[in-house]
Write a structure and sequence with these properties.
It catalyses: a fatty acyl-[ACP] + phosphate = an acyl phosphate + holo-[ACP]. The protein has 340 residues and is α/β, with parallel strands linked by helices. The chain contains eleven helices and eleven strands. 46% of the residues lie in helices and 16% in strands. It has an eleven-stranded mixed sheet with strand order 3-2-1-4-11-10-5-6-9-7-8, sandwiched between helices. The two termini are 38 Å apart.
């Protein structure tokens, strides 16, 4: 297996650099071909390294950085003034081909601004998009984008998102011809604003997409489509709402199994089913939103991500690196959008 190098910004999350220690250990144990560059202050990087078993430390190196982008910092300020930050250094490593991709749990706005500036978008893509997978009622996952990279989108942006989402699902989800849909307030042709209607017309003209039309919010999780496209404002709300519902269901299940003696007894027999349900709905395994449309791989981990969630973000980076996702998107964009 070809060596994979990941630049990991461990400084920006809510929980501190230590949250990555078990995730890094697990990744290096499972993937011996992976090398992780810790982008951090020297003391934070050294503290993390001491928590990693000694036999794995050869798979680690440090890119010492003096600055840290905090969660409250404005993206424009971070872009101008934080050139020596852990976030910027991770992106620079990717841009200079010293790393194959980067992962950060830092300030989302700052990461998007820096990534766009440092890596640039692919030819034919005007804006990158944040995309992540969500569970469905069937044994498959659906991709939802945009999740907040661009609050306001025009029809051309939505068309580009559809193409990129289709490529990502085809690559990572192993779906030969992903079904693509537009998120709308109804499935009827008369529903939606002018941007949605224009995007619908553009998608219908795109021969390289299996576009099936509009879907409503509750259809996201039905398992009938593979890619759901929307603007960043709506997508972010849909994502956060789904995560909240998943946590509510998990907590309710835990509470109900403890309420009475009978419930506690029954829960022991139901434990395998409950564990399976928990695993399917646990938001941690869906951590790792891809910032696609750039000339490099960037994975955004939740700022408040747990150690398990950080592991899944790193695993997502490895998958996209091995699949050469930006190259696949470039090829599809050139074929479907730039040749016409």
């Amino acid at each position: 297996m070809t060596k994979v190098i990941i630049a990991l910004d461990i400084m920006g999350g809510d929980r501190g650099p230590h949250v990555f220690s078990s995730a890094v250990t697990k990744i290096l144990s499972e993937f011996p071909f992976v090398h992780i560059v810790l982008c951090a202050t020297e003391s934070s990087a050294n503290d993390l390294i001491t928590k990693v078993p000694s036999h794995l430390r050869a798979q680690l190196s440090v890119e010492a950085c003096e600055q840290v982008v905090d969660m409250q910092m404005k993206p424009a300020f971070a872009l101008r003034k934080m050139k020596n930050s852990s976030m910027r250094r991770a992106l620079d490593l990717v841009n200079n081909q010293l790393a194959h991709g980067c992962v950060s749990s830092g300030n989302t706005g700052a990461l998007m601004a820096m990534a766009n500036y440092v890596l640039k978008t692919l030819n034919g893509i005007s804006r990158p998009a944040l995309v992540s997978s969500l569970p469905t009622r069937k044994d498959k996952k659906v991709l939802l984008l945009d999740l907040g990279a661009s609050i306001n989108c025009d029809a051309e942006n939505l068309l580009q998102y559809a193409v990129m989402g289709s490529v990502l699902q085809q690559s990572c989800g192993e779906v030969d011809s992903p079904k693509v849909a537009l998120l709308n307030v109804g499935e009827e042709d008369i529903k939606g604003n002018s941007v949605i209607k224009h995007a619908d017309a553009l998608l219908k003209e795109c021969a390289g997409l299996d576009y099936i039309g509009y879907v409503e919010g509750d259809d996201i999780f039905a398992g009938e489509v593979d890619v759901v496209v929307t603007d960043g404002f709506t997508g972010n709300i849909a994502l956060k709402a789904s995560e909240g519902i998943a946590k509510l269901v998990i907590e309710e299940i835990k509470s109900l199994t403890k309420e009475t003696f009978v419930a506690r007894c029954l829960s022991k027999f139901m434990l395998p089913l409950l564990k399976n349900l928990y695993q399917r709905m646990n938001p941690d395994q869906y951590n790792g939103a891809s910032l696609i449309g750039l000339r490099g791989i960037v994975i955004k981990s939740h700022g408040n991500a747990s150690a398990e969630a950080c592991y899944y973000a790193l695993k997502q980076a490895i998958s996209e690196i091995n699949l050469s996702v930006p190259d696949r998107i470039r090829t599809k964009i050139e074929k479907e959008l730039l040749e016409h």
